[in-house]
Predict the structure.
Amino acid sequence: DTAVSQTPKYLVTQMGNDKSIKCEQNLGHDTMYWYKQDSKKFLKIMFSYNNKELIINETVPNRFSPKSPDKAHLNLHINSLELGDSAVYFCASSQVTQGGEKLFFGSGTQLSVL
Amino acid sequence: DQQVKQNSPSLSVQEGRISILNCDYTNSMFDYFLWYKKYPAEGPTFLISISSIKDKNEDGRFTVFLNKSAKHLSLHIVPSQPGDSAVYFCAAKDTGTASKLTFGTGTRLQVTL
């Protein structure tokens, strides 16, 4: 009963391929995100969806297309993979409480583009 | 432009002692700050947060201090335990804009026996 689950955990693929990463949250949160952690360990937001609608797109190449079929799912599809796409991708969802907003992360997908 | 900086990539502390992790930010609009802890092969998990209306927030062994004039926050862990060994990320947000957390690059804490 993992709160935010993403699959696959590891993804090794050739340059030019198209791949997808799936994410599901069972926390009932309205907002979901994709973050990228690059080789320098920066955790950078890519996209944010609120109730299936895109609210943040942080200048991500349009080879990256998020899809939210419902508010519990936010999948990430990547076309024409490049070497520089190699990174760890984290899905997250958020809850706004009296104390502020908290993000709950999945365990990450390590993408290696060869 | 790195708006949240953790200048110490690593820190080693003896078990039982205090661990102090530091974070600096440049964006004066940030008004909400969080610390996340990350173990290898896992996603970051929320640890503690602080709003800019406070200068201190405590939760068990973890205390976060905020110095707004210096644009600096720190996480204190007392006493440090081996299970605290992880990477700690500082994050900040301007709550007046759309949801977006800006993260630092993390500090790897090693608690030794």
